[in-house]
Amino acid sequence: MFNSGASGGASSPTLTNVIFSRNYCWTGAAIANAAANGTANPTLTNVTFSQNWADDRGGAILNSGINGVITSTLKNVILWGNTAARIGPQIYNEQGLSVIDYSIVQGGDSGIAGNNGLTAFSDGTGNLNADPLFVNPASDNLNLQWGSPAINTGTTTGAPSTDIRGTPRPVQVITDMGAYEFSEPKLGLAKQVTPTTGALYGGVVTYTLILSNTGTISDTTLLTDTLPAQATAVNNEVRWHGTITDSTTLTFTFTASYTWDRGAQITNTALFSGSMQAGSAAATFTQSVTPASTAVAVTAAPNPTVVQNAVTFTATVSPVGSGGGVPTGYVTFTVGANVFTATLDANGVATTQRTDVVVGNHAVSATYAGDNNFATSSNTGANQVVNCTSAYVINNTADAGAGSLRQALTDACESGTVTFDPALTAGGPVTITLTGGWLFVDKSITVAGPDADLVRVSGNDASTVFAVGYGVNCNNLRLDDPRRALQFKAGMAAAA
What we know:
It is a single chain. With 496 residues, the protein is mainly β. It has four domains: 1-183, no CATH class; 187-286, Immunoglobulins (Immunoglobulin-like), CATH 2.60.40; 294-386, Sandwich (Immunoglobulin-like); 389-495, no CATH class. Strands 2, 3, 6, 7, 10, 11, 14 and 15 form an eight-stranded parallel beta sheet that branches. It has a five-stranded parallel beta sheet with strand order 1-5-9-13-16, with no helix packed on it. Strand 37 (389-394), helix 2 (405-411) and strand 38 form a beta-alpha-beta unit. The longest helix is centred in the C-terminal third of the chain and has 7 residues, at 405-411. It is rod-shaped and about 150 Å long. The protein starts with a strand and ends with a strand.
């Protein structure tokens, strides 16, 4: 900028919130004030000079008042990083004056050269010789960093109400030096979650974190979001550490699944910490009040099998849809007329072995009872085929049911043998009392008792013991009844 009041002229410009950067000239690289036989009295308020260079003198400002009058008035000005190849890296006065107050001048008085006003720095008020800590002068970012000596050290008197960007001045108590008013990095954090209601037990929710910097300088920030124990995510924590530049928004998205009781409200808070600011943001969602749907798969093995051999029944209960987690509780198996339960393990699997399924082709079903978070469900698997055995073992004295004499006569194969479990008579003689009527035999079968005095079969003074429709051999078996022990329907019978 050339400011001339030469040849009797007058030029007294006012510069406010101006930046002079990377200008080059032989002398007075940024501003050359000339007042030969005239007047040139510029007023500079909140002006920044940086990286200007002159081949001779006056790296930033030249005041040449030969036979004229020059007084440059500087207030809230920064002169830093300017150079002159010969003399006066910041200001060169040639029969001119500088009035400097509340400004930064690199080198202090030594940054000023010439034949006049060489102590303008030390003569002024509130001047500093200290690095203003520009954010990045190499890329022409002449904003002030946190800790800059230019912050809150200028004067508000006569200062503009805004800076070069329109940011209100002062941000703090006193106006800053230079064209930029220091503005702290203004960090903010917002957090969102979807869905906000009706999230299935074990289902997936999506979190979105929005970290913003609406300030004018960058900041190094740590962002964390630690999930509670009932959530499942990688390392159960979201963590980011880096630099967020000015006027920037960063978005982070991650998912998690929760295994909280249905209907629970779950609030999760994310935290951020910058060099000058810290804060948090929270998001809340409600676990579904409806139990998550389930499905049951049921199997039985071996299939087919022989009566009184062990059969393993297995039911696997799984969540249906977007839900997750593991159902708890128990499963009820129905195999023909047999009904029994088994408890789910940590993987949602219920297993039981049974030897009491009678001969027949039985439908196998499993019904999950449900729990606080999972709904009931049921399924029918392949039919279980149980074939007769040639060697049936009686293990109880019940009138009927698996392991009884009555069931043995049904489940033993033609020409099969029925024996008694030694454990049944280990404590002494036992009696099988018939309460359901006589025992009907319609096949050739041998019933071999351990001893005539150890097992007795009684008609309970109400019925015949055996109704024989075919051949039956009874060995070492006592038949007690005041009525006839045997009633022959057809064929023949022998008793001992």
